[in-house]
């Protein structure tokens, strides 16, 4: 099968186009013919080798976790999906494996694609949506009427986080640059802060959650902005582990305030909830740029600059027609 591989860690130009073996599924997995993949920060960080001490260096490596495609083979233990279904989800293999014509994953990774969106849009949803939902529900325990500050509101996670916070009945302070103000405003935050014009650390408002999507603050620097029992939430798990001793110390004198991080969990029930919100028009994705597989180096170079408004996607194949999706 055609795929984009890396044989060493490095900059975007390390990608090579190659013909490699199609994955073989186990009895509890499904094989999909990939239509579209989306790029998340974890992809270009792994390309650079940031996780090599945890995941190793099993070259050639196929990157990419978010995918949408058609089920072409199912294992004997699979009961949620059948051949011909159009699914979207986050792969659970080491390094993912989505940047190829075919990809494999366990049943928990997928849900039926919502019927009211394209396969390209569907591929952009999974990781950012699961991350935001699980962060707010499981880590922050957000309640209606509470206030969240989202630092990095214009990116892939940020613009979905605003919408899920709105679904949960939470008040939103969105932080981004003035260039992104128009983009962010369409998601109706309660207030907007241009970080070039106003120092976020000098805000005169207290929040229940400081959601640091951009990752350029710390718990010690932001804890004064948190209400009693407020939470500083950062998505950089490895970085948060190194700062845990400092955070633990500051928590001792912070009136119940805490620093937390998140590792997204594969959960098709959560993905099904996201599909329902999409079908109901409550959740929408914004695509910044679209690339093709042979433009993978350009796609990574653009994505890692960190100025995207929404998600960036890579098209592998033409979308299948007249197949079963969620809501049909």
The fraction of residues assigned to DSSP E strands is: 25-35%
The CATH C-level class name of the largest domain: Alpha Beta
CATH fold assignment of the largest domain = Quinone Oxidoreductase, Chain A, domain 1
- Counting helices, strands and paired strands, the structural category is alpha/beta
For the biggest sheet, the summary is: 7 strands, mixed
Report the order of strands and helices: EEEHHEEEEHHEHEHEEHEHHEHEHE
**Count of extended strands:** 15
Distance from N terminus to C terminus (CA atoms, Å) equals 31 Å
- CATH homologous group name of the largest domain: Medium-chain alcohol dehydrogenases, catalytic domain
Q: Mind telling me the C-alpha Rg?
A: 20 Å
The shape is globular
Number of domains: 2
CATH architecture of the largest domain: Alpha-Beta Complex
Which spans of ≥5 residues are poorly predicted at pLDDT below 50?
none
- Estimate percent helicity: 25-40%
Mean pLDDT across every amino acid position: 93
Number of helices: 11
Question: What this model shows, in words?
Answer:
- With 328 residues, this protein is of the alpha/beta class.
- It folds into two domains: 155 residues, Medium-chain alcohol dehydrogenases, catalytic domain (Quinone Oxidoreductase, Chain A, domain 1, Alpha-Beta Complex); 134 residues, NAD(P)-binding Rossmann-like Domain (Rossmann fold, 3-Layer(aba) Sandwich).
- It has eleven helices and 15 strands.
- Strands 3, 4, 5, 6, 7, 14 and 15 form a seven-stranded mixed β-sheet that branches. Strands 10-9-8-11-12-13 form a six-stranded parallel β-sheet.
- The chain is globular and about 55 Å long.
